[in-house]
Design goal:
heterodimer; A: 5 helices; 82% helix; B: mainly alpha; elongated
Chain lengths: 152, 138
């Protein structure tokens, strides 16, 4: 039904938005594993890997998802909409960025500490980063639900 | 939630699981982060990825076909037939990488060009998304 009513000009921004969101959730799964390995082993390569997944994959994927979202919202003239699903999308996105920055700082500090030769095995910061990544996955699942069912 | 909305949500969720599973296989198939994960870690992650993408593949296919019937689309359309072809390519590649990971777990050598398989898998998933968004031949 959507294909019938959606103008062609909306397709590319929608593709960018969904593609970015898929890369974002997929990288988060990788990050969860990387953080777990870093917390178990505590050495420099493991801590560096966890940080790099967040820095090189999750952050760029977030930017692509967010820009795509803004673009498609502008095309659909939904930027100032007070529809529930749009609100959920923007809230998850904005809070998600905050959590992502917290995760980046925590894993970055641990990568630096591990580089200096100190083991980060069992570090509370990595545990916190893992919890942050878990919350992000859950929040994005809620966003996927909102984007597909469009409540309100 | 209507039946259509439920089907669409689970179908899209399946697509996200498929892509997440494929990404989880990347360190094993492409040899990324070997120093960090070590071979055993990459294999374990690839096995988790194969489960994720397996669940995703089933959800996208079953719910996708159900959606086609629910909305009343015709099955013999370019975007639907194309999606089935690329789903099969991605599924085959995923299965081969999972098979190689299982072989490594048993202490055997991984057979096949894992890099090429992973690229085919990722390209298949990307083309699937393009077909779902643009719906050519609708």
């Amino acid at each position: 039904m959507l294909a019938i009513v959606r103008p062609d000009a909306w397709n590319f921004p929608l593709f960018v938005h969904i593609g970015g969101a898929m890369a974002l959730v997929a990288s988060l799964v990788l990050a969860l594993y990387g953080i777990r390995i870093a917390r178990t082993r505590g050495d420099q390569p493991a801590a560096q890997f966890a940080f790099r997944v967040l820095w090189r994959f999750i952050l760029p994927a977030f930017i692509v998802m967010r820009l795509g979202g803004q673009w498609i919202a502008a095309k659909e003239k939904l930027e100032n909409s007070d529809a529930t699903w749009i609100g959920i999308g923007f809230t998850v996105s904005d809070l998600g960025l905050l959590l992502l920055i917290i995760g980046l700082v925590l894993t970055g500090l641990m990568a630096r500490r591990a580089k200096a030769g100190t083991s980060v095995a069992g570090a509370g910061q990595l545990r916190a980063a893992g919890i942050v990544a878990g919350i992000l996955v859950t929040a994005y699942l809620v966003a996927i639900w909102a984007m597909t069912t469009k409540p309100g | 939630m209507s039946l259509y909305e439920t089907l669409l949500f689970v179908h899209v969720l399946g697509a996200f699981a498929l892509v997440a599973g494929t990404t989880a296989m990347a360190p094993f198939a492409l040899g990324w982060g070997q120093a960090a994960l070590e071979r055993a870690g990459a294999v374990k992650l690839a096995m988790t990825g194969s489960i994720l993408s397996g669940i995703g593949a089933v959800l996208t296919l079953v719910l996708g076909l159900w959606l086609v019937a629910n909305v009343g689309y015709e099955f013999l359309r370019l975007w639907i037939v194309g999606a089935l072809v690329f789903w099969a390519i991605a599924g085959y590649s995923n299965g081969e990488i999972a098979k190689a990971a299982r072989a490594v777990l048993r202490g055997e050598e991984a057979a096949g060009n894992l890099r090429a398989l992973w690229i085919a898998d990722a390209l298949g998933a990307t083309v699937l998304l393009i077909l779902m968004v643009w719906k050519p031949g609708h």
